[in-house]
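[Automated response] Your request has been received and processed.

Submitted sequence:
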Amino acid sequence: MITLRKNQTEPIGKATAFFNAKNPSPSLIVLPTAWGKSILTAFTAREMTDKLLVLQPSKELLEQNYRKYISLCGDDLQVQAGIYSASFGRRDINKITYATIGSIKNIGKLFKQLGFKKMLIDEAHLYPRESESMLGTFLKESEITHVLGITATPIKLQQNTDLNGNRFSKLQMLTSKSKKGNFFKDIIHVGQVQEMVELGFWSKLEYRTTEFDSSGLVYNSSRSEYTEESVQASFLANDIRRQVFRELDSHPDRKHILVFVPSIQEAIDMAKQYPESAAIHSNLKSAERADIIDRFRAGKIRCIFNVRVLSTGFDYTGIDCIIFGISTASIALYYQIVGRGTRIDAGKRDCLIIDLAGNVERFGRVEDIVFEKDTLWRMYGTGGKLLSGIPIHELGTINRDNLKAKQDATMVKKSSAKPVTIMPFGKYKGELIRNIPADYKRWALDNIEWHNGNMNLKEALMQ
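Generated structure:
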């Protein structure tokens, strides 16, 4: 049995209290990378008197959570734990059952018959919000009453269309209402990234940035990310290959370096030109990739040039330098890449983040990310920059202070605004709202994205 850290006791207590509450709304606990989510899962399961279903998105995470439960809670409790996963090769149900959704999606009624009422969902942000999804179908058939999700990133990328028919994307908090619903209603605990830094459980990060001309970057059709062609063109226009080689030569003390470049050919060419390096990309066979990673861990390869394939699932703790040779509009990808360097290792004093492509300026430092609630839960970055709930192409235009001023101005405008009587857009544009069919009003209330600027219309439709 381990001794819990001071930042672990509180969320475990809140998780236990949640499952003991009477009919709570589906909720989230937010815990940053390296907090130890499998520890929360294990200790919460240990405290359960009722049956508990623990859901994971993959076989690998299931095995990690199951083994953590056995190691922390003792072999005498192993008989109480079961695994239901086709990919794992086991289909046993016990008091604590670890499962993957693909394996249980059609047997919700069985879990109902067996008396399961409580579910813990790891990596909750990966599951669709729609009621007709595998998770939605299972929850409906099983009639589970208590659902608690755990995640480091309580956000979803959402695509929208404005009133002029233009597409755009934004990061939406999982607790915010959207056209796909908001299954999770609240966040009952947030472990902020800065807590991990202050307590010494994240490696210190040092940032180095260079000037970058972003004028050549072009958004894709959904305005959620830059096109591959424009990222490659900006790489060439800013002479990033030369800059990468210069940075590698300028920091000889860095021994385990990941460099992110925009194309497979670029990775291959750069690996051929730079000593003690290799390229990893999607065209490599798994055995070739494993060999490169093994030599990298052993110190025989100093630098790996890669095309996003090592942004997740590669947790070698010795990484002491990450170089961005690519630009991204995705804060999730940015967080994942920087996260490769946050692990503590006895052989490094910190991890140097070298950004040659404008990402730090766009998003800020990862350590500064916080989740806060005023009227809604929101995600903020360095300098109070708002990162959620606004179009991705507008990131950097709103911060905590001017958001508050905008909200106050909207409330004043709303209080003095005349009631809305005419439908301003859509199928019944120009019609008196009181004459619009009730089924269309219900459709509009469910599908329009409501915010401070159009709440008068919502109120009119609800009358």
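Summary generated for your ticket: The first strand starts at residue 27 and ends at 30. The mean pLDDT is 88.
If you did not submit this request, please reply to this message.
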